[in-house]
Specification:
By secondary structure, the protein is an alpha/beta fold. About 25% of the residues lie in helices and about 35% in strands. A hairpin with a 2-residue loop joins strand 1 and strand 2.
Length: about 425
Protein backbone atom coordinates (compact mmCIF):
# COMPACT_ATOMS: atom_id res chain seq x y z
CA UNK A 1 0.00 0.00 0.00
CA UNK A 2 2.75 2.47 0.92
CA UNK A 3 4.81 1.57 -2.16
CA UNK A 4 1.86 2.42 -4.42
CA UNK A 5 1.33 5.75 -2.62
CA UNK A 6 5.01 6.67 -2.97
CA UNK A 7 4.99 6.15 -6.72
CA UNK A 8 1.64 7.91 -7.23
CA UNK A 9 2.37 10.98 -5.07
CA UNK A 10 5.75 11.98 -6.43
CA UNK A 11 4.53 14.19 -9.28
CA UNK A 12 2.29 16.14 -6.89
CA UNK A 13 5.16 16.43 -4.45
CA UNK A 14 7.51 17.88 -7.08
CA UNK A 15 4.84 20.39 -8.08
CA UNK A 16 4.69 21.63 -4.49
CA UNK A 17 8.42 22.43 -4.46
CA UNK A 18 10.31 25.36 -5.89
CA UNK A 19 13.83 23.96 -6.02
CA UNK A 20 13.75 22.64 -9.58
CA UNK A 21 17.48 22.00 -9.78
CA UNK A 22 16.92 18.78 -7.83
CA UNK A 23 13.97 17.48 -9.85
CA UNK A 24 15.98 15.14 -12.06
CA UNK A 25 17.95 13.80 -9.08
CA UNK A 26 14.71 13.18 -7.25
CA UNK A 27 13.22 11.30 -10.21
CA UNK A 28 16.36 9.17 -10.53
CA UNK A 29 16.27 8.38 -6.79
CA UNK A 30 12.62 7.34 -7.08
CA UNK A 31 13.48 5.03 -9.98
CA UNK A 32 16.23 3.42 -7.90
CA UNK A 33 13.81 3.01 -5.02
CA UNK A 34 11.17 1.49 -7.32
CA UNK A 35 13.66 -1.06 -8.65
CA UNK A 36 14.64 -2.04 -5.09
CA UNK A 37 11.30 -1.92 -3.32
CA UNK A 38 11.14 -2.06 0.44
CA UNK A 39 13.58 -4.51 2.02
CA UNK A 40 12.13 -7.75 3.37
CA UNK A 41 13.47 -10.40 5.71
CA UNK A 42 14.94 -12.11 2.65
CA UNK A 43 17.44 -9.25 2.48
CA UNK A 44 20.49 -9.93 4.66
CA UNK A 45 20.47 -6.42 6.16
CA UNK A 46 16.84 -6.85 7.27
CA UNK A 47 17.03 -10.53 8.14
CA UNK A 48 15.75 -9.95 11.68
CA UNK A 49 13.50 -6.94 11.09
CA UNK A 50 10.13 -7.13 9.35
CA UNK A 51 8.77 -3.87 7.91
CA UNK A 52 5.34 -5.25 6.98
CA UNK A 53 3.68 -3.37 9.83
CA UNK A 54 4.96 -0.10 8.34
CA UNK A 55 4.56 -0.73 4.63
CA UNK A 56 1.00 -2.08 4.73
CA UNK A 57 -0.40 1.19 6.12
CA UNK A 58 -1.52 4.24 4.14
CA UNK A 59 0.01 7.66 4.91
CA UNK A 60 -0.55 11.32 4.18
CA UNK A 61 2.46 12.82 2.36
CA UNK A 62 1.37 16.44 2.90
CA UNK A 63 0.99 17.04 6.68
CA UNK A 64 -1.32 19.79 7.87
CA UNK A 65 0.69 22.75 9.16
CA UNK A 66 -1.84 23.90 11.77
CA UNK A 67 -0.94 23.04 15.36
CA UNK A 68 -1.81 24.07 18.92
CA UNK A 69 1.38 23.08 20.74
CA UNK A 70 1.49 24.80 24.13
CA UNK A 71 4.50 26.07 26.05
CA UNK A 72 3.76 23.51 28.76
CA UNK A 73 3.94 20.67 26.24
CA UNK A 74 7.25 21.94 24.92
CA UNK A 75 8.64 22.44 28.42
CA UNK A 76 8.04 18.75 29.13
CA UNK A 77 10.23 17.84 26.17
CA UNK A 78 13.14 20.00 27.27
CA UNK A 79 15.99 18.73 29.39
CA UNK A 80 16.06 21.73 31.69
CA UNK A 81 18.46 23.29 29.23
CA UNK A 82 17.85 27.00 29.81
CA UNK A 83 21.33 27.71 28.51
CA UNK A 84 20.85 25.66 25.33
CA UNK A 85 19.66 26.74 21.93
CA UNK A 86 16.76 24.83 20.45
CA UNK A 87 15.11 24.50 17.06
CA UNK A 88 11.51 23.38 16.81
CA UNK A 89 9.88 21.85 13.75
CA UNK A 90 6.13 21.22 13.96
CA UNK A 91 4.49 19.20 11.20
CA UNK A 92 7.62 19.66 9.14
CA UNK A 93 7.77 23.45 9.38
CA UNK A 94 10.39 25.42 11.32
CA UNK A 95 8.71 27.63 13.95
CA UNK A 96 10.94 30.48 15.07
CA UNK A 97 8.51 31.51 17.81
CA UNK A 98 8.96 28.08 19.42
CA UNK A 99 12.74 28.14 18.95
CA UNK A 100 15.63 29.87 20.65
CA UNK A 101 18.59 30.48 18.36
CA UNK A 102 21.40 32.65 19.70
CA UNK A 103 24.26 31.10 17.74
CA UNK A 104 26.34 33.58 15.77
CA UNK A 105 28.89 33.39 12.96
CA UNK A 106 27.28 30.26 11.51
CA UNK A 107 25.00 29.51 8.60
CA UNK A 108 21.72 28.02 9.80
CA UNK A 109 18.64 27.53 7.63
CA UNK A 110 15.71 25.19 7.41
CA UNK A 111 16.44 22.56 4.78
CA UNK A 112 13.59 23.69 2.53
CA UNK A 113 14.70 27.33 2.68
CA UNK A 114 18.32 26.41 2.04
CA UNK A 115 17.32 24.52 -1.10
CA UNK A 116 15.64 27.68 -2.43
CA UNK A 117 18.46 30.03 -1.47
CA UNK A 118 20.73 30.77 -4.43
CA UNK A 119 23.61 31.63 -2.06
CA UNK A 120 23.72 28.02 -0.87
CA UNK A 121 23.36 26.32 -4.24
CA UNK A 122 27.12 25.66 -4.51
CA UNK A 123 27.23 24.24 -1.01
CA UNK A 124 24.41 21.83 -1.76
CA UNK A 125 25.97 20.73 -5.01
CA UNK A 126 29.23 20.06 -3.14
CA UNK A 127 27.81 18.18 -0.15
CA UNK A 128 24.21 17.06 -0.62
CA UNK A 129 23.85 13.30 -1.01
CA UNK A 130 27.59 12.76 -1.50
CA UNK A 131 28.00 10.31 1.39
CA UNK A 132 24.43 9.04 1.78
CA UNK A 133 24.34 5.66 0.10
CA UNK A 134 22.23 5.31 -3.05
CA UNK A 135 22.17 1.54 -2.48
CA UNK A 136 19.59 1.81 0.28
CA UNK A 137 15.87 1.92 -0.47
CA UNK A 138 15.22 4.36 2.36
CA UNK A 139 17.97 6.84 1.45
CA UNK A 140 16.74 6.88 -2.15
CA UNK A 141 13.19 7.39 -0.91
CA UNK A 142 14.38 10.26 1.25
CA UNK A 143 16.21 11.90 -1.64
CA UNK A 144 13.05 11.67 -3.74
CA UNK A 145 10.82 13.22 -1.07
CA UNK A 146 13.05 15.19 1.36
CA UNK A 147 11.76 18.61 2.35
CA UNK A 148 11.93 18.98 6.14
CA UNK A 149 14.99 19.37 8.34
CA UNK A 150 17.89 21.79 8.74
CA UNK A 151 21.20 22.91 7.24
CA UNK A 152 24.01 24.06 9.56
CA UNK A 153 27.50 25.13 8.56
CA UNK A 154 29.99 25.97 11.31
CA UNK A 155 32.87 28.01 9.86
CA UNK A 156 36.56 27.46 10.52
CA UNK A 157 37.63 27.69 14.21
CA UNK A 158 34.13 28.64 15.42
CA UNK A 159 33.24 26.88 18.67
CA UNK A 160 29.53 26.73 19.47
CA UNK A 161 29.51 26.61 23.25
CA UNK A 162 25.80 25.86 23.68
CA UNK A 163 24.36 22.51 22.64
CA UNK A 164 21.56 22.76 20.07
CA UNK A 165 18.44 20.66 20.68
CA UNK A 166 16.39 19.95 17.53
CA UNK A 167 12.76 18.92 18.07
CA UNK A 168 10.68 17.26 15.35
CA UNK A 169 7.03 17.34 16.44
CA UNK A 170 3.91 15.99 14.75
CA UNK A 171 0.49 17.13 15.95
CA UNK A 172 -3.11 17.52 14.71
CA UNK A 173 -2.72 14.96 11.94
CA UNK A 174 -6.00 13.16 11.31
CA UNK A 175 -4.33 10.56 9.09
CA UNK A 176 -1.18 8.51 9.37
CA UNK A 177 1.63 10.84 8.29
CA UNK A 178 4.90 10.30 6.44
CA UNK A 179 7.88 12.64 7.01
CA UNK A 180 11.16 12.56 5.09
CA UNK A 181 13.51 14.71 7.14
CA UNK A 182 16.93 15.71 5.89
CA UNK A 183 19.79 17.24 7.90
CA UNK A 184 23.12 18.53 6.63
CA UNK A 185 25.86 19.45 9.12
CA UNK A 186 29.21 20.85 7.98
CA UNK A 187 31.85 21.45 10.68
CA UNK A 188 34.85 23.17 9.18
CA UNK A 189 38.47 22.99 10.33
CA UNK A 190 38.93 23.57 14.07
CA UNK A 191 35.20 24.09 14.71
CA UNK A 192 33.03 22.41 17.34
CA UNK A 193 29.29 21.73 17.75
CA UNK A 194 26.95 19.47 19.72
CA UNK A 195 23.46 18.50 18.48
CA UNK A 196 20.63 16.74 20.32
CA UNK A 197 17.84 15.33 18.13
CA UNK A 198 14.43 14.08 19.26
CA UNK A 199 11.14 13.16 17.54
CA UNK A 200 7.69 13.41 19.16
CA UNK A 201 4.27 12.31 17.93
CA UNK A 202 1.40 13.94 19.84
CA UNK A 203 -1.36 12.09 17.98
CA UNK A 204 -2.87 8.61 18.15
CA UNK A 205 -2.45 8.28 14.38
CA UNK A 206 0.74 6.68 13.12
CA UNK A 207 3.81 8.67 12.10
CA UNK A 208 6.53 7.25 9.87
CA UNK A 209 9.75 9.29 9.80
CA UNK A 210 12.43 8.44 7.26
CA UNK A 211 15.40 10.60 8.25
CA UNK A 212 18.77 11.08 6.54
CA UNK A 213 21.59 13.05 8.17
CA UNK A 214 24.94 13.83 6.56
CA UNK A 215 27.76 15.01 8.84
CA UNK A 216 31.04 16.40 7.48
CA UNK A 217 33.76 16.89 10.11
CA UNK A 218 36.94 18.59 8.89
CA UNK A 219 40.47 18.43 10.33
CA UNK A 220 40.84 19.23 14.04
CA UNK A 221 37.06 19.68 14.28
CA UNK A 222 34.64 18.02 16.71
CA UNK A 223 31.01 17.08 16.05
CA UNK A 224 28.76 15.32 18.57
CA UNK A 225 25.26 14.15 17.64
CA UNK A 226 23.00 12.72 20.36
CA UNK A 227 19.81 10.91 19.33
CA UNK A 228 17.17 10.77 22.05
CA UNK A 229 14.53 8.29 20.84
CA UNK A 230 11.61 8.22 23.26
CA UNK A 231 8.50 8.57 21.10
CA UNK A 232 5.07 6.97 21.60
CA UNK A 233 3.77 3.59 20.46
CA UNK A 234 2.32 4.93 17.20
CA UNK A 235 5.68 6.07 15.85
CA UNK A 236 8.04 4.46 13.38
CA UNK A 237 11.54 5.83 12.79
CA UNK A 238 14.02 4.85 10.08
CA UNK A 239 17.16 6.85 10.80
CA UNK A 240 20.09 6.96 8.38
CA UNK A 241 23.18 8.86 9.54
CA UNK A 242 26.40 9.21 7.54
CA UNK A 243 29.54 10.83 8.95
CA UNK A 244 32.66 11.61 6.92
CA UNK A 245 35.73 12.67 8.87
CA UNK A 246 38.95 14.33 7.75
CA UNK A 247 42.33 13.96 9.48
CA UNK A 248 42.66 14.69 13.22
CA UNK A 249 38.89 15.01 13.70
CA UNK A 250 36.55 13.58 16.32
CA UNK A 251 32.91 12.63 15.73
CA UNK A 252 30.50 11.02 18.18
CA UNK A 253 27.01 9.64 17.62
CA UNK A 254 25.16 8.53 20.76
CA UNK A 255 21.81 6.76 20.35
CA UNK A 256 19.43 6.35 23.29
CA UNK A 257 16.39 4.26 22.34
CA UNK A 258 13.55 4.05 24.84
CA UNK A 259 10.34 4.63 22.85
CA UNK A 260 8.76 4.13 19.46
CA UNK A 261 7.02 1.07 18.03
CA UNK A 262 9.75 0.28 15.52
CA UNK A 263 13.12 2.04 15.30
CA UNK A 264 15.85 1.26 12.80
CA UNK A 265 19.18 3.10 13.14
CA UNK A 266 21.63 2.90 10.22
CA UNK A 267 24.94 4.51 11.13
CA UNK A 268 27.83 4.81 8.69
CA UNK A 269 31.25 6.35 9.48
CA UNK A 270 33.72 7.04 6.68
CA UNK A 271 37.37 7.85 7.50
CA UNK A 272 39.01 10.19 5.01
CA UNK A 273 42.32 10.89 6.73
CA UNK A 274 44.67 9.76 9.48
CA UNK A 275 44.49 10.25 13.27
CA UNK A 276 40.67 10.14 13.30
CA UNK A 277 38.60 9.21 16.34
CA UNK A 278 35.02 7.91 16.03
CA UNK A 279 32.71 7.08 18.93
CA UNK A 280 29.36 5.26 18.77
CA UNK A 281 27.47 4.51 21.96
CA UNK A 282 23.96 3.22 22.42
CA UNK A 283 21.52 2.36 25.19
CA UNK A 284 18.30 0.52 24.36
CA UNK A 285 15.63 -0.19 26.97
CA UNK A 286 12.33 -1.43 25.52
CA UNK A 287 9.40 -3.68 26.43
CA UNK A 288 5.96 -4.77 25.19
CA UNK A 289 6.29 -5.56 21.46
CA UNK A 290 8.76 -2.77 20.56
CA UNK A 291 11.61 -3.35 18.12
CA UNK A 292 14.91 -1.44 17.97
CA UNK A 293 17.48 -2.35 15.33
CA UNK A 294 21.01 -0.86 15.33
CA UNK A 295 23.12 -1.31 12.19
CA UNK A 296 26.57 0.33 12.29
CA UNK A 297 29.51 0.44 9.90
CA UNK A 298 32.93 2.04 10.24
CA UNK A 299 35.19 2.31 7.19
CA UNK A 300 38.85 2.58 8.25
CA UNK A 301 40.47 3.81 5.04
CA UNK A 302 43.61 5.48 6.47
CA UNK A 303 46.26 4.54 9.07
CA UNK A 304 46.44 5.54 12.75
CA UNK A 305 42.71 5.87 13.36
CA UNK A 306 40.47 4.67 16.19
CA UNK A 307 36.81 3.71 16.45
CA UNK A 308 34.88 2.73 19.54
CA UNK A 309 31.43 1.12 19.60
CA UNK A 310 29.67 0.30 22.86
CA UNK A 311 25.97 -0.71 22.73
CA UNK A 312 23.95 -1.88 25.73
CA UNK A 313 20.46 -3.39 25.51
CA UNK A 314 17.82 -4.23 28.12
CA UNK A 315 14.76 -6.05 26.78
CA UNK A 316 11.49 -6.90 28.53
CA UNK A 317 8.05 -8.19 27.52
CA UNK A 318 7.99 -9.41 23.93
CA UNK A 319 10.43 -6.79 22.69
CA UNK A 320 13.01 -7.47 20.00
CA UNK A 321 16.48 -6.02 19.72
CA UNK A 322 18.92 -6.24 16.81
CA UNK A 323 22.57 -5.24 16.65
CA UNK A 324 24.70 -5.64 13.54
CA UNK A 325 28.01 -3.81 13.78
CA UNK A 326 30.60 -3.87 11.03
CA UNK A 327 34.20 -2.65 10.99
CA UNK A 328 36.06 -2.54 7.67
CA UNK A 329 39.85 -2.06 7.74
CA UNK A 330 41.50 -1.26 4.40
CA UNK A 331 44.91 -2.75 3.57
CA UNK A 332 46.57 0.67 3.96
CA UNK A 333 44.89 1.37 7.30
CA UNK A 334 47.79 0.15 9.46
CA UNK A 335 47.84 0.95 13.20
CA UNK A 336 44.03 0.90 13.31
CA UNK A 337 42.50 0.50 16.76
CA UNK A 338 38.87 -0.63 16.55
CA UNK A 339 36.72 -1.73 19.48
CA UNK A 340 33.18 -3.08 19.17
CA UNK A 341 31.05 -4.46 21.99
CA UNK A 342 27.35 -5.29 22.36
CA UNK A 343 26.02 -6.47 25.73
CA UNK A 344 22.40 -7.38 26.37
CA UNK A 345 20.14 -8.39 29.25
CA UNK A 346 16.86 -10.23 28.69
CA UNK A 347 14.34 -9.63 31.48
CA UNK A 348 11.59 -11.95 30.20
CA UNK A 349 11.24 -15.20 28.30
CA UNK A 350 9.48 -13.43 25.44
CA UNK A 351 12.26 -10.93 24.76
CA UNK A 352 14.65 -11.55 21.83
CA UNK A 353 18.02 -10.13 20.80
CA UNK A 354 19.81 -10.91 17.54
CA UNK A 355 23.40 -9.67 17.65
CA UNK A 356 26.11 -9.94 15.02
CA UNK A 357 29.35 -7.97 15.43
CA UNK A 358 31.62 -8.26 12.38
CA UNK A 359 35.20 -7.43 11.39
CA UNK A 360 36.67 -7.35 7.88
CA UNK A 361 40.40 -6.68 8.19
CA UNK A 362 42.81 -6.41 5.26
CA UNK A 363 45.73 -4.82 7.16
CA UNK A 364 48.16 -6.77 9.34
CA UNK A 365 49.31 -4.23 11.96
CA UNK A 366 46.04 -3.50 13.74
CA UNK A 367 44.39 -3.86 17.12
CA UNK A 368 40.76 -4.84 16.61
CA UNK A 369 38.33 -6.57 18.94
CA UNK A 370 34.65 -7.34 18.96
CA UNK A 371 32.24 -9.26 21.11
CA UNK A 372 28.70 -9.66 22.35
CA UNK A 373 26.95 -11.09 25.39
CA UNK A 374 23.34 -12.08 26.07
CA UNK A 375 22.12 -13.11 29.49
CA UNK A 376 20.13 -12.41 32.63
CA UNK A 377 21.03 -10.52 35.80
CA UNK A 378 23.74 -12.00 37.98
CA UNK A 379 22.04 -13.90 40.82
CA UNK A 380 25.02 -13.54 43.16
CA UNK A 381 24.99 -9.76 42.75
CA UNK A 382 21.24 -9.69 43.39
CA UNK A 383 21.68 -11.76 46.53
CA UNK A 384 24.47 -9.45 47.75
CA UNK A 385 22.25 -6.36 47.41
CA UNK A 386 19.14 -8.00 48.90
CA UNK A 387 21.18 -9.22 51.88
CA UNK A 388 21.75 -5.54 52.68
CA UNK A 389 18.06 -4.71 52.91
CA UNK A 390 17.47 -3.62 49.32
CA UNK A 391 14.24 -4.87 47.71
CA UNK A 392 14.45 -7.21 44.75
CA UNK A 393 13.03 -4.59 42.37
CA UNK A 394 15.46 -1.90 43.52
CA UNK A 395 18.37 -4.34 43.40
CA UNK A 396 17.51 -5.26 39.81
CA UNK A 397 17.23 -1.59 38.87
CA UNK A 398 20.59 -0.72 40.44
CA UNK A 399 22.33 -3.54 38.59
CA UNK A 400 20.70 -2.60 35.29
CA UNK A 401 21.60 1.05 35.75
CA UNK A 402 25.22 0.09 36.42
CA UNK A 403 25.13 -2.19 33.38
CA UNK A 404 24.00 0.64 31.06
CA UNK A 405 25.95 3.46 32.70
CA UNK A 406 29.29 3.10 30.91
CA UNK A 407 27.60 3.83 27.57
CA UNK A 408 26.93 7.34 28.93
CA UNK A 409 30.47 8.15 29.98
CA UNK A 410 31.38 10.33 27.03
CA UNK A 411 28.29 12.58 27.32
CA UNK A 412 29.62 15.93 28.46
CA UNK A 413 26.19 17.63 28.46
CA UNK A 414 25.06 17.30 32.08
CA UNK A 415 21.32 17.97 31.47
CA UNK A 416 21.31 15.28 28.79
CA UNK A 417 23.11 12.81 31.04
CA UNK A 418 20.60 13.54 33.81
CA UNK A 419 17.68 13.07 31.39
CA UNK A 420 19.02 9.69 30.26
CA UNK A 421 19.43 8.67 33.91
CA UNK A 422 15.83 9.64 34.67
CA UNK A 423 14.55 7.77 31.63
CA UNK A 424 16.50 4.73 32.77
CA UNK A 425 14.81 4.95 36.16
CA UNK A 426 11.37 5.40 34.59
CA UNK A 427 11.81 2.42 32.30
CA UNK A 428 13.05 0.34 35.24
CA UNK A 429 10.04 1.58 37.27
CA UNK A 430 12.02 2.49 40.35
CA UNK A 431 13.12 5.62 42.15
CA UNK A 432 16.87 6.06 42.13
CA UNK A 433 18.77 9.08 43.37
CA UNK A 434 21.47 10.04 40.84
Amino acid sequence: MLLEQILNNHSSFLESLRHRFLDEDRKAALQRFESMGFPTKKDEEYKYTSLKEITEKAYNFFPKEHHNITKEQLDELHLGEENFDWITFVNGKLHKELSKVSIENVEFLSFNYALNDEKHRDVFEKYFNTIASDKSAFTNLNQAYCKYGFFLKVPKNVVIEKPIHVFYISQNQEENTFYNTRNLLIVEEGAKVEIIESHHNFDSTYVLTNSVTEIFTYSNAKADWHKLQNDNDTSYLIDNTFARQEKDSLTTVNTFSFGGKLVRNNLDFIHNGSNINSFMNGITIIGKDQLVDHHTAVHHNFPNCESYQNYKGIFDGKSHGVFNGKVFVDKIAQKTNAYQQNNNVLLSEGAIIDTKPQLEIFADDVKCSHGCTVGQLNEDALFYLRARGISKKEAQALLLYAFANDAMQNIDIEPLKEKISKLLAEKLEVDIEF
